[in-house]
Hints:
This protein has 4 helices and 10 strands. It has helices at residues 123-132, 137-155, 162-166, 169-178; strands at 5-12, 16-27, 31-36, 45-47, 50-53, 59-64, 69-75, 81-89, 99-112, 119-121. Strand 4 (45-47) and strand 5 (50-53) form a beta hairpin. It is globular, with a radius of gyration of 16 Å. The chain starts with a strand and ends in a 5-residue tail after the last helix.
Amino acid sequence: xxAGHVVIHYxxxxxxxxxxxxxxxxxxxxxxxxxxxxxxxxxxxxIDGEPALEPDAxxxxxxxxxxxxxIGRFHTLDDRFTxxxxxxxxxxxxxxxxxxxxxxxxLDVWQPAGGGDIRILDADELAVARAAGSIAEATARRAEQxxxxxxxxxxAGAWPPPIVAEWTLERARGHVxxxxxxx
Length: 183
């Protein structure tokens, strides 16, 4: 287990960039668990008419070595767990360091809390990027394969991995408090 922070350089094609700093709460050889205290989103992310993530709400993130996705445990501002959200992205460069770099590949996978229907989000955004030439065709196909594979694994009961259920928001915050962090 490691304490500290990780800085994430997050690129979104064709030319958007965001920098995130998150608490590193747990690290294994293959997975890093981080806590984002408060999202920087400006408006609530709604999925199927329900709030999935609100401005300033917390997210527990799971980043996996060499994986083409990460996973977030999403919450509302009052800390209600809403579901599991996977970003399809390039494998994180710098996984073993405190500074990561990755590129978002548009597609996301959503599974609401309570085991509702899992589905792929933002296929329209990938189609626009493809049409604009903002993403290489091979990369777009790889993103589609990743999203479809997550859905298939979820329907077979093999996704998300157990570590996602183990590291709740309460547990991540407790770790940060013990390490002298915020919240």
